[in-house]
Amino acid sequence: MEYSFSKSSEALSSSVVREILKLTQGNSILSLAGGLPAADSFPVAEMREAFNRAFEQGSTSLQYGLTDGYLPLRQWIVKRMAQKQIQVSVDNMLVTTGSQQAVDLLTRVYLDKDDVVLVENPTYLAAIQLFQFRGVRVIPVDGDDEGMDLDDLANKIAKYRPKMVYVIPTFANPTAKVWSMERRLGLLRQCREHNILILEDDPYGEIQFDGEPPYRSLFSLDEHPHNSCVVYTSTFSKIVAPGLRTGWALGDERVIQMMVKAKQAVDLQSSTIDQVALYQLLSQFDLDSHIEKIRESYKERMEWMHELMTRQQWEGITWQKPRGGMFLWVTLPEHIISAELLKVAVAKGVAFVPGEAFYASDTKTNTLRLNYTLLNREDTELAISRLGSAIEEYSKVVVP
Amino acid sequence: MEYSFSKSSEALSSSVVREILKLTQGNSILSLAGGLPAADSFPVAEMREAFNRAFEQGSTSLQYGLTDGYLPLRQWIVKRMAQKQIQVSVDNMLVTTGSQQAVDLLTRVYLDKDDVVLVENPTYLAAIQLFQFRGVRVIPVDGDDEGMDLDDLANKIAKYRPKMVYVIPTFANPTAKVWSMERRLGLLRQCREHNILILEDDPYGEIQFDGEPPYRSLFSLDEHPHNSCVVYTSTFSKIVAPGLRTGWALGDERVIQMMVKAKQAVDLQSSTIDQVALYQLLSQFDLDSHIEKIRESYKERMEWMHELMTRQQWEGITWQKPRGGMFLWVTLPEHIISAELLKVAVAKGVAFVPGEAFYASDTKTNTLRLNYTLLNREDTELAISRLGSAIEEYSKVVVP
User: Fold this and answer.
1) What's the rounded Cα separation, in Å, for the pair A308 and A315?
2) Mutant choice from B19, B71, B245 vs A, greatest count of A C-beta within 10 A
3) Domain B7-42+288-397 falls in which CATH fold?
4) N or C: lower Cβ tally within 10 Å for chain B?
């Protein structure tokens, strides 16, 4: 038998992070590569109780349920969203298998092969991969610390006539960037004018360290929910636990209904029992206090990594201290190719994600992403020390 | 904002079953339309204990896990499959969000737009919909009670050069058909000769009533796992509970690895906690006794529905007593259009799925599918009585 895979599967041929994870498995390599929340932040005892309460409802928690999701959970999310200046009903909402699935479903119902999606550069690598798997053209827009460059956005809209823009405006992956209000409003204005849909991916919005008021989502700033030019997606992965694979999408009811139909074809529905248990947890749990604890813990870890890196007194290596999220984005001197540095680093016992994976094009090879939420204090110290040795060794071999 | 959906989303425009479910919600309509297992067959107490044991492992049950699935669960499935004359390793296996997702993933990595897939006629409607959502051409092959007609299969292979054949050879949805050994071997021979992949969907194989030895899967009859021309998928939905949304796919490791990459892009992984809990259940549970109880219960329900229908003494209405599975397939006199009959039936308080939804083309409008697993004895009696009234009323209006 000779297998002949689809053309679109060619876009799946390499996953940098998977390869790194393979390298780090089963040995003593400390990984700063993943995007895993701290396991000690999961409300394990409360979740266990919530599952027990879910089973008290009997067999319905194990039966098929609605494709759009468990209604009490959707009603809970409606109330939560109202605290974020988002006014929606359950008909504007779809529960998904993590926010990742929301990106997939919207892509499939909204974009055809050769359609254009604009993205930040760098941006979330799995989103780039999903778009390419769909056969969609991914065009990067220039940007700075404030968000996308609005002039370049206008140029790219004129040149490529995109159907969609994909953005993570708050504590982006991988850069931890926060868009200014001016850029948020500018993006909305241009997209509305040109009838372009915005997919706002907001997995990290709650993980804020900087003491500022919460940053406004694009969805909340736009006319909504009816006729919104934004589809918003978020997840419980970072504020409760990722193993429940529960996220949600919000949007105009016509867009959401089309995503529901797609989900019905794709996997019928996400786990019933997980949704019932999650609702049971949330209905008796002080989520805001829990999030506050995650914020404090992650802020402390981030500050610690920042301090350890500062102590290294690296020359020509720069980064911005994150205001939230889970990642620290590092720029190396131009002669250091981070994918090559990774090999040295793995030999020293530490892993990270080379930045090149996050670029749709105009790839910079001298960047890398560090995660600070997974490792404990001691392991982080050891990991940064190993990273320092790797940089030192690499610099000895490759002279600028 | 004017939304402009993808071309492929047009295939999603109508879902007969969804529309029927809407009709039946929130009132006293008895539904023979769905494909829901009997809720009283779910091992609720054992599952609850299994979740508690999963939580004893601490936070890892709530963390991200491997895309291919929780390793102990995959190892358990390997052993189970060996009892079915299937020899695989964990590398030939992928855990999916129900077997529905396996169909989607394989379609996306193996078929491009305008590729051809051959199917039985009628066949599982959600598979037809998925193929059409992918832009794949769905071509039906003629068949009889023994399976696909091998001559027509040869003709269609010559004419359409298909890349894949999709079949449910054991207790099919909607017909409950069981393929003969001759047809199974004939399909394998032709597909191997022409390098065509077979997707064998086997959600109902364990639900056997007829006292015969278990029917051999195509996958077990083919050279496997390396170089197999079959990808096999099954699910825990019908033998444990559908709300866990846990299925699996088996195949050559190259095909499986491509599906794993697609799954990583699509939703990263299925629920960690559900997989850990399911493994905890299976490792301490007598699954075979449990399946035996389901078989007895479903056989009794099927016999009861068959008896009730026989008592109706309908003229010109025929069906075959199922040897297994969850559905009873009914052929009406040609002048009865089952989609029209449904309207009368809903007014009488009973729903079914009109057969036309299950045809890729050459649609027969005088067929319908009844589910016998969900309702209890009393409700089944009432439902068939209401169906009888509906047929009587319909026949008064529409004279052949």
Assistant:
1) 14
2) B245
3) Aspartate Aminotransferase, domain 1 (3.90.1150)
4) C
- Helix/strand number for chain A, H first, E second: 13, 15
A109 Cβ under 8 Å from any chain B Cβ: yes
- pLDDT for res A13: 65
Of all residues in chain B, what percent carry a pLDDT higher than 70?
96
Q: For B348-357, write each residue's pLDDT tens digit.
A: 999 999 999 9
CB contact under 8 A, A6 and B61: no
- Per residue in A79-136, pLDDT (tens digit) is 999 999 999 999 999 999 999 999 999 999 999 999 999 999 999 999 999 999 999 9
Question: In whole angstroms, what is the distance from residue B395 CA to residue B130 CA?
Answer: 36
For chain B, the C-alpha Rg in angstroms (whole number) is 21
Residue ranges per structural domain of chain B: 7-42+288-397, 44-283
**A163 to chain B nearest CA, in Å?**
9
CATH label, A7-42+288-395, candidates 2.60.40.10, 3.10.290.10, 3.30.420.270, 3.90.1150.10: 3.90.1150.10
Buried b (16+ CB within 10 A) or exposed e, A2-19: ebebbebbebbeebbbee
CA–CA dist B148, B300 (Å, integer): 29
CATH of A44-283, one of 3.40.50.300, 3.40.640.10, 3.90.1300.10, 3.40.50.2000: 3.40.640.10
The answer to whether the peptide bond before residue A122 is cis (omega within 30 degrees of 0) is yes
Interchain contact A272–B (C-beta under 8 A) = yes
Q: Yes or no: say if B326 and B371 are a contact pair by the CB < 8 Å rule.
A: yes
Nearest to B197 by CA among B109, B135, B260: B109
- Chain A residues closer than 8 Å to B3 by CB: 110, 197, 252, 254-255
B270 Cβ under 8 Å from any chain A Cβ: yes
Contact B238, B248 (CB under 8 A): no
Q: Hey, is the C-beta of A262 within 8 angstroms of any chain B C-beta?
A: yes
B190 contacts in chain A (CB < 8 Å): none
